[in-house]
Amino acid sequence: MFLSPTDLHALTAIRHELHRYPEVSGEEQETARRIVEALTPFNPARILTGLGGHGVAAVFSGAAPGPTLLFRSELDALPITEKNRLPYGSTIPGKGHLCGHDGHSTILLALALGLSRQPPATGRVVLLFQPAEENGAGAAAVLADPRFAEIAPDLAFSLHNLPGLPLGHVALKAGPVNCASRGLKITLTGKTAHASQPETGLSPMQAISSLMPALTALSHSAPPAPDFRLATVTHAQLGEPAFGIE
């Protein structure tokens, strides 16, 4: 292993720093700055910033021509309050690195350290820190950035933490590994009325109460079945907390 105890201590400190200051999709300016600051001592041949928003790419070049390998992590956190009482817990109310992107980014920084000590013999290795993974916009934005053509890989790899996997183990699987997700927002428009004249109003309550079980009924099977699907209602709101209205 190319990481010494001192290296591991320094990388842990970087992860804790990223964890303290989470930024959600599209807002990762300071996170990107911290990543560039951590990458610079490793002397990559090139660091690209502002890719598809706040994306960062570090390029490590070999002495001879060859294929380009890309390894990807993510920059963004989630808009969820962190309730864990950690000494390095989130300092940003309502935001937290609760999907492990701080850890993923640190893994790529560890790889950057290794490449600084043993550069690729041929070709290039690109470490891409992608923005806006959680809202699905970042990958498309990075690919649409004209500068992505300068680092276009022959092979691309990504990784994700897997809670419960024993320390030091890596899991590989042929074919799709993680589910894709789609978001849907439904807006129903009613008409408010005074409770004394309910016939003049139109409440979407019945439609909402029918939609909720109908949507959750679309779920099928369970992981790791290949036909697994899950429909989840994550938020619903109806009217205002007031009496005397319909």
Q: What are the low-pLDDT stretches, counting only 5+ consecutive residues below 50?
A: none
Helix-strand pattern, N to C? Answer: HHEEEHEHEH
Strand order of the largest sheet: 1-2-4-3-5
* Strand proportion: 15-25%
Structure annotation, total helices: 5
Arithmetic mean of pLDDT? 93
Give the N-to-C terminal Cα separation: 67 Å
* Estimated radius of gyration: 23 Å
Structural class: alpha/beta
The major β-sheet equals:
5 strands, mixed
Structural shape: elongated
Assembly context of the chains: single chain
The number of distinct β-strands equals: 5
- The amount of helix comes to 25-40%
Task: Give a short synopsis of this structure.
By secondary structure, the chain is an alpha/beta fold.
What this model shows, in words?
The protein is of the alpha/beta class. It has five helices and five strands; from the N terminus they run ααβββαβαβα. It has helices at residues 5-20, 29-39, 101-117, 138-144, 205-216; strands at residues 46-51, 55-61, 64-74, 122-130, 155-158. A five-stranded mixed beta sheet has the order 1-2-4-3-5, with helices on both faces. α1 runs antiparallel to α3. The model has no long low-confidence stretch (mean pLDDT 93).
List the helices and strands and how they pair.
Layout: H1 5-20, H2 29-39, E1 46-51, E2 55-61, E3 64-74, H3 101-117, E4 122-130, H4 138-144, E5 155-158, H5 205-216
